[in-house]
Design a protein that fits this description.
With 108 residues, this protein is mainly alpha-helical. The protein has a domain of 40 residues. Helix content is 77%, strand content 0%. The protein has 5 helices and no strands. The longest helix is centred in the first third of the chain and has 34 residues. Keywords: Membrane, Transmembrane, Transmembrane helix.
Length: 108
């Protein structure tokens, strides 16, 4: 499977995940809030997506979460031996289908 197909699958999974999360927000809102608080109405799907976006802005921000992961990966790479690091880099190149032919040619 090539890299474009993998990227499309990942993108499709992200869109499906966001859509499912919006449905979960709507279902939880409509199940809990009207019974707990007087005067709270049920919401539809688009309003649930708006609540999800608002909560992302207020509580998560748009700073991204790659910074913490990047530091962890950098620490992990620094703690590897040169042989382990080379093996890891070859494996990462092979993730998108690039480098697999080069690796098999290099082994022969």
């Amino acid at each position: 499977m090539n890299c474009k197909a993998k990227c499309w699958k990942i993108g499709l999974l992200v869109v499906a995940g966001v859509a499912a999360l919006g449905w979960v927000v709507m279902a939880l809102w409509n199940w809990l809030l009207p019974t707990l608080f007087f005067g709270v109405r049920e919401i539809d799907y688009l309003q649930a997506m708006g609540v999800l976006l608002l909560s992302k802005i207020l509580f998560g921000g748009f700073r991204g979460h790659c910074g913490g992961h990047r530091k962890w990966h950098q620490h992990r790479l620094e703690s590897m031996t040169p042989e382990e690091r080379e093996k890891f880099q070859i494996g990462m190149r092979g993730w998108c289908g690039k480098g697999k032919q080069e690796d098999t040619a290099a082994k022969e």
